[in-house]
Amino acid sequence: MPVVNPGEYFVPPYIEDIPENKYGELVKIGRNIFVNTQVYGKRYVGNGLNCSHCHLSEGRKANAAPLWGAYGIYPMYRIKNREVVTFQERIQDCFKYSLDGIAPTVDSPEVEALTAYAHWLSTGVPVGIVLPGRGFTAVNRSRTPSTENGEIIYKTQCAMCHGEDGLGYKHEDGSPGYMFPPLWGPDSFNRAAGMNKVKTAAQFIKANMPLGKGFTLTDNEAADVAFYMWIQSRPYDPRRSLIINIFMPPPGGGG
């Protein structure tokens, strides 16, 4: 069983260790959904992303919002929701915002399988403990982010994978989704996603980008790239549509 030592990153169990029983079958389904959401979770997805595009290495990588760093601290109060949410409800938000789709019910097969996968990856994690590597790394910039500098860094460090236009690169074999995901445009995350926040994107970029060269950009440079991403177009915040529907009268009056 994996052990957590102070100051060290948790090491989740290996894929080969998934048990050969009903629970293991559910874990494998959850892993399939997580890694290839475009196929196994497609009925709830509205863009071209997979869960693993933001939670790197199949949800295993430290400082890339690993599942093992999240599962054990739920239920928790979440400012975004302004209430205590369960892990299953957190998954719903990912589908609505990061995947720009619709929320599955908490008892749907997809949510149950994803929860089982997160539970299995967290084998050996103490409940309620904030582990090193949970979420993203800290960013402490010393100046206001610059979109001009962000554009330069993007074109020299990021465009090779995500495209000059930021729209990513699809799989060469024609399979659904992207080999390198779009960072903006209609197939990316929407304005309500956590990654739409400059701070959150900067934290992710600092630790993980360019791919395989994490922690090579300075805090200021990571924030510059995040700000450059933020000014681009992407799907709208679906919560704004709800507010408009509530407070605006229907066409033709209704006052």
From TrEMBL:
Pfam entry (one): Cytochrome_CBB3
Domain annotation Cytochrome c: ranges: 145-233
KW Lyase (keyword) present: no
Keywords: Heme, Iron, Metal-binding
Gene3D superfamilies assigned: Cytochrome c-like domain
Name of the featured protein: C-type cytochrome
Native source species: Candidatus Marithioploca araucensis
Phylogenetic lineage: Bacteria, Pseudomonadati, Pseudomonadota, Gammaproteobacteria, Thiotrichales
